[in-house]
């Protein structure tokens, strides 16, 4: 902060009768102010005085030693001497006359007077010969000084030095001498003043004198903390001793602070003289507080303190001199004094700029009150309370001699304020706005409409957005009048965009409609006139006029038409509004948009309900993006918050009995190893331009789809289009085993010139819950198929209802299998069901390996039956609104909820108890978040909670279920064979057989190939009978088969008793390839040997 104007300094008085001071003055002043003094108060910590300003005061004699005087700390006499005679006749008499007498030189109290301690010093200058010689025979000059003046410090000064080092040492010594002396005097004076304050009999005035001296002492030495304490004590003393009884006194007009004039008023002195007034007292406190602040570094706290002490002084004076004719001029010039102080006028911080601007604004308003009080000049934007006082204006009269001068002065002052607040780094923006409003209003008052328009354009918007309706509405009305009075303005620039004035005026009319209390119909009429006469293309905030509530409960208003209701409250426009369109836009996480629309509506005053519809929908989760209401060329728009900030809206497929629907499921009549989807059409009458596009979707974004609609692995087909109702089956091909597939389902069609489109992603379970394997059995006159049927799921049982084998007319097949009760196959492959079919060929036909047989397995899953049971038990409602609601949500139940229900099938089969294994909490959250009809949501919730706890049922015969059966078609063929033989061992006698007995057997070999459509080959076949540990072969055991029928004799010897299996017989080709197609009739027979 600026420290040039100081009321208190450390004074050093010098007496220079012999013109010595001039020789060292420049060197001494160059080392002032003194720096880095270290002082430690009693009982306190060491303090550093960074700078100590010193005033060198010329004096011809010692000063008056009194408490009311600012007594110098050091008295110095500058002398020189070159001879004994000069010393005796000139120097010594001068010093004796200058020094105080013995009776006043001590630091004690004499005759009820306090002696203010000071130090007297002799600075003498002589050449080295005089100093070093014994000028007075036995003593030197310095010793002579000490003898003649034992209480005075003697210091030799030099003006000529041997070198720079000597000069530096001399001045270091001199400065150190001054510092130590000053600190010593400071300690002595503090000791005296503080000691006197300890006296219990001390009067108010004496206490005030000592406190003022302590304040002066601390301020002189820049000891700010202690000075502040003393100033507080002085204030407390004055407040306790009748400040309110003091006369008001006279104000200074213009005000001047004493730090500029250098005169410090002593309160104690004023009391003694009877001249103390409230004004003098308040000014004393203010100027001393200001003195303290000016000695500190510029910090935020200092600026705050400056503002506080200035406000306090300002408030005190205005309270005391409230009705004084000079108060306004005093305030003006007092603020002028503050504004000129370098503490804030040169401050670089934001706070200093704010304080400066605040004082400047107060000064302008003070001037304005003076003008209002003394003239009839007025500003429409500023009003003051009426006042009957005629204020003095002699110093400011020239600033408002006429109305034009008044206007110009006001504009210049306000421009200055705008400049000042503009430097406050955004803190004064609102004040700047209001100052701009005041200037704009003055220009409007002067009919300078273009200037008023330029200033008011941004101001009214702020006040409207800040909900300052009265101010904003008034400014807006003036802005509109200015704009209407400036026909040359056709476009306005806003963020680099040119906006037609018609759009601006339409916007303003609507804003005035909102703020107006009695003219709403007028402003709406003005808006409609302009809206119809020009192409304003205005987008206006819908919330300004209407309150909107959007239902999150979609429904089907017509077949394939989804709808939402919105409630709109109109409390602003007092007449009916013709609306051309109401449009609600939604967006999902994939940035896909959904639009609901209603056309040609009427918004009446009060509450309104509208139904918005869409025929083009993608089933997904949406956020509400915006709502637009179109009136003429104006769109009233409301933007909604994002996904994270508000509830979402879930669009699920709903049911309507007249809907045109395409249902895509895994085919119920499946062909083994041939995957297909089944498509069903409902209400396809009157449907035109039907188009269904199916897209194979990848479950992993980094990989292609797991299936395609063709079997070309090099060029897979991932998309097909269906536009023919005759197509009811869609084959597809997978890469390996796939349990579920994802399909993009995009349906479009027309009905009655109305276009419809629906898109959704389908997840279809294509896993086959049943497994079928087949084994072949050859017999000499028949062929047997052995089918092994089991559940392919490790969790879900399968129920087999019937099996049948389809053959062509040349075969005879055994009957189909139709059990009295369906067979339940537990989950897993360990439990299975065997199904045999005997195949015989009719006479004249042969078994053909190219013939295809089809096994039909009619089955269902246990889950399908329990799903059916749960649906009927909990959700069967046959009449009323309940039936409609449950039909509406039936698709969600079938396609979303039921697939997520996992049952305990063991509990169902064992205890006839339906209980869930799946976690029910996600299901409950799903129901509550997506089903928006409360009655349906409640019913679903109760159902899930009941199933979680377990629901006991009575006997549930599966055969009585109406679940639609699945049919698996398994195509089978005869095995591929090249030759077929039958072999039989026939004993020639039926007597008892004994161990070791030679038993004759006939081996009968038949070539059955003529019964099969086998291409004849030239292979030679050899029959072999093998030895074993049970039989020994006697005779020929190998033979070549030359004909289709062959019999030969063989003898077998049994090697042990018991039931012996017949020996092993095999047929090989000549290349030793074993023929597998051999019907060995004795393969599983035994022979009793005793």
TrEMBL record:
Residues 971-1069 form the TRAPPC10/Trs130 C-terminal domain. The keyword Transport applies. InterPro entries: Ig_TR130_2nd, NTS_TR130, TRAPPC10/Trs130, TRAPPC10/Trs130_C, TRAPPC10/Trs130_N. Residues 676-768 form the Trs130 second Ig-like domain. GO terms for cellular component: cytosol; early endosome; trans-Golgi network; TRAPPII protein complex. GO terms for molecular function: guanyl-nucleotide exchange factor activity. It is found in: Golgi apparatus. GO terms for biological process: cytoplasm to vacuole targeting by the Cvt pathway; early endosome to Golgi transport; intra-Golgi vesicle-mediated transport; macroautophagy. Keywords: Golgi apparatus, Transport. Residues 10-297 form the TRAPPC10/Trs130 N-terminal domain. Residues 305-532 form the Trs130 NTS domain. PANTHER family: EPILEPSY HOLOPROSENCEPHALY CANDIDATE 1/TMEM1, TRAFFICKING PROTEIN PARTICLE COMPLEX SUBUNIT 10. This is Trafficking protein particle complex subunit 11 domain-containing protein. It comes from Eremothecium cymbalariae (strain CBS 270.75 / DBVPG 7215 / KCTC 17166 / NRRL Y-17582) (Yeast).
